[in-house]
């Protein structure tokens, strides 16, 4: 089976072109391929498939084999892949996900996609809540970006024990389907510093839906303006949400690292 390793700000996935390849048992394959010592090493597995409703379809699995409905960094890489492989010949395209169809615009230089704008849809925000985990109490904003998020605010995210708090909230009984967890620091009215504990993958270098969720929560609380740069360990994403009932636009890079094939 041939694969391509790609990433958006270090949020890395193994991509398989399912126009040509067939992946049996993708949950098991995801666990095996994502292992950073015994496999290729990645945050998840993304299958690029034909679609009856859009230009192509993205099917994503986290590193633990669980299915994710949406991936903001992954979908930009899918757009880059299908454009550069000639599977979709337009810079404007629609990609089907488990949480609906997303519209994307590829920015191209010398035939290569270097930046992608994604219409992430309208964030669904819920009132702030509190929960107790590991003997501490945490306040968070639940946000649905097509996948679930719990956004927490801190004055200094570098000092947060993400490895301990992340899984405690991810697996808390408040979230029967588990959740992604955002640790956000408002730097100023146009900048957020963010770390993300991803459901099924652990702390990642970046999370597109997580960055959008953090912006939605911060914007709704009046902590930042409607156009924000989010700085994550792997780099920065630009996010614009012009009005509360309109779509959020995510802009960021997509990179190919290597192509390979699995040994028989
Ligand atoms: N890295 C992603 C989100 C991947 C899915 C997530 N872990 C989930 O289970 O919902 C992104 O860039 O949005």
UniProtKB/TrEMBL annotation:
The record marks 149, 198 as: Could be important to modulate the pK values of the two catalytic cysteine residues. InterPro entries: DAP_epimerase_AS (IPR018510), DAP_epimerase_DapF (IPR001653). Keywords: Amino-acid biosynthesis, Cytoplasm, Isomerase, Lysine biosynthesis. Pathway: Amino-acid biosynthesis; L-lysine biosynthesis via DAP pathway; DL-2,6-diaminopimelate from LL-2,6-diaminopimelate: step 1/1. The active site is at residues 71, 207. Substrate binds at residues 11, 62, 72-73, 147, 180, 198-199, 208-209. Its EC number is 5.1.1.7. Its main location: cytoplasm. It is an enzyme of class 5 (isomerase). The keyword Amino-acid biosynthesis applies. Gene3D superfamilies: Diaminopimelate Epimerase, Chain A, domain 1. The keyword Cytoplasm applies. It catalyses: (2S,6S)-2,6-diaminopimelate = meso-2,6-diaminopimelate. NCBIfam families: DapF. Catalyzes the stereoinversion of LL-2,6-diaminopimelate (L,L-DAP) to meso-diaminopimelate (meso-DAP), a precursor of L-lysine and an essential component of the bacterial peptidoglycan. Homodimer. Belongs to the diaminopimelate epimerase family. HAMAP family: DAP_epimerase (MF_00197). This is Diaminopimelate epimerase. It comes from Fusibacillus kribbianus. The gene is dapF.
């Amino acid at each position: 089976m041939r694969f391509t390793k790609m990433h958006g700000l270090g949020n890395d996935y193994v991509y398989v072109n399912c126009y040509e390849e067939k992946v049996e048992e993708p949950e098991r394959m995801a666990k095996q391929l994502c292992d950073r010592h015994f496999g290729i090493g990645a945050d998840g597995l993304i299958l690029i498939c034909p679609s009856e409703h859009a230009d192509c379809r993205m099917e994503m699995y986290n590193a633990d084999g669980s299915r994710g409905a949406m991936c903001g960094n992954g979908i930009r890489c899918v757009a880059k892949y299908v454009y550069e492989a000639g599977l979709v010949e337009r810079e404007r395209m629609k990609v089907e996900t488990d949480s609906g169809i997303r519209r994307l615009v590829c920015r191209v230089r010398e035939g290569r996609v270097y930046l992608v704008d994604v219409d992430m849809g309208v964030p669904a925000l819920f009132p702030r809540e509190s929960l107790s985990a590991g003997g501490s109490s945490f306040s968070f904003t639940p946000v649905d970006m097509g996948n679930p998020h719990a956004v927490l605010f801190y004055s200094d995210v570098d000092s947060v024990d993400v490895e301990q708090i992340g899984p405690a909230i991810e697996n808390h009984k408040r979230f029967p389907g588990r959740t992604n967890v955002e640790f956000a620091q408002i730097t100023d009215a146009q900048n957020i510093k963010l770390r993300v504990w991803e459901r099924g993958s652990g702390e990642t270098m970046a999370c597109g839906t997580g960055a959008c969720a953090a912006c939605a929560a911060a914007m709704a609380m009046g902590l930042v303006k409607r156009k924000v740069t989010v700085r994550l360990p792997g780099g920065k994403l630009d996010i614009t949400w012009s009005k509360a009932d309109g779509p959020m636009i995510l802009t960021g890079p997509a990179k190919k690292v290597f192509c390979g094939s699995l040994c028989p």
